[in-house]
Write a structure and sequence with these properties.
Radius of gyration: 25 Å
Structural class: alpha+beta
Strand content: 25-35%
Number of helices: 11
Shape: globular
Helix content: 40-55%
Largest sheet: 5 strands, antiparallel
Strand order of the largest sheet: 6-5-4-3-7
């Protein structure tokens, strides 16, 4: 069965949901954002958690209200529902402009919508219930929202880690199936995405995969013995730059005053500074990440060393100059 529903919410809420859909790479074949596919996954993976959290919150509020002797049970229950409704509604912010989403559901998402319609609406409309669910989801940090959307992937990875079993999967951006020893999941503080940190037996090296890009997850029957040296290295990478397994280099970058301000303000994938000597900033960080980060600084951050990094940025700006000329 397939059915369509109109969901009314604010323009700000719709934009934030579309942003998550884009960041988590829910796209159609033509490259456009597949908001409906994303929302179906959200409903399927978040419904149980949302309902349980809502019931727990309602019971806690109801428990407080029923302790007031003047309130009868029915009045306390009605008041508790209104308090929860007001609490959730107040999470919606923005300019006040309204928007509508046409939600097309089928399969498991259709079954959940029917459960909501038949059992959980009370005085609320279906559109209001779904909107409240979306607002609750958006109140959670993005790294945890990623865990909700890719629930099955997280569960498979955690099971493989706990049982020390080899994990097989494919990843967007890689043209082959990977079979790895999974060690941990680490979250990039700047990006708010999570990564599987693992060791590839065939390539004999540590690797990092963004979890939202994994598919065809399969827990094999083969086990492995964790290597303490590998685990220590992955822990170190997980704390600093889980999105990259490249070896660190020592780099010296000369900053202008504006460059120093930009370093403070541009936090996405920002390398940690080892120490500062006047205008000279010293880094021990993967070269590729340093190159990507300082491409945004122009003349306000000039690489002094190493020569390889300096040449890469010099060539980058030279090609830009040629293009603009």
């Amino acid at each position: 069965m397939t059915e369509k529903y109109k969901i009314y919410l604010s323009e700000d809420t719709k934009t934030r949901l579309a942003t998550d859909a884009e960041l988590f790479e829910f796209t159609r074949e033509n490259g456009t954002v597949n908001l409906n596919g994303f929302l179906k996954e959200l409903i399927v993976n978040y419904f149980d958690q949302y309902r349980n959290d809502n019931e727990e919150l309602l019971n806690n509020v109801l428990g407080e209200l029923t302790s007031v002797k003047e309130l009868k049970p029915k009045a306390a229950s009605d008041l508790a529902s209104k308090i929860i409704k007001t609490y959730i509604t107040n999470k919606e912010s923005g300019s006040g402009k309204s928007a509508v989403i046409t939600l097309t559901v089928s399969g498991e998402s259709y079954e959940i919508i029917k459960i909501i319609e038949n059992n959980l609406l009370k005085e609320n409309s279906l559109s209001g219930y779904i909107k409240d669910m979306f607002l609750s989801y958006l109140s959670i940090p993005r790294s945890k929202r990623e865990e909700i959307i890719f629930k099955d992937t997280y569960e498979a990875i955690n099971k493989a880690i706990s049982e020390s079993r080899l994990l097989s999967f494919t990843s967007r951006g890689h043209d082959h199936k990977a079979i790895v020893e999974p060690y941990m999941i680490a979250t990039s503080k700047e990006e708010q995405f999570s990564y599987l940190l693992c060791h590839d037996q065939r390539q004999k090296k540590n690797r990092s995969f963004r979890i939202s890009r994994l598919s065809n997850i399969f827990i094999t029957s083969h086990t492995f013995t964790k290597d303490q040296k590998i685990e220590d290295e992955l822990i170190r990478k997980g704390l600093r730059s889980p999105h990259s397994m490249s070896a660190d280099i020592h780099a010296v970058v000369q900053m202008t005053e504006r460059g120093k301000q930009m370093y403070t303000m541009i936090v996405k994938n920002r390398p940690y500074v080892t120490y500062i000597d006047g205008d000279l900033y010293h880094f021990d960080w993967p070269e590729m990440q340093l190159e990507d980060y300082f491409r945004r600084f122009g003349k306000d951050a000039v690489v002094i060393s190493p020569r390889s990094l300096k040449s890469k940025l010099k060539n980058y700006y030279s090609r830009a100059l040629e293009a603009y000329s």
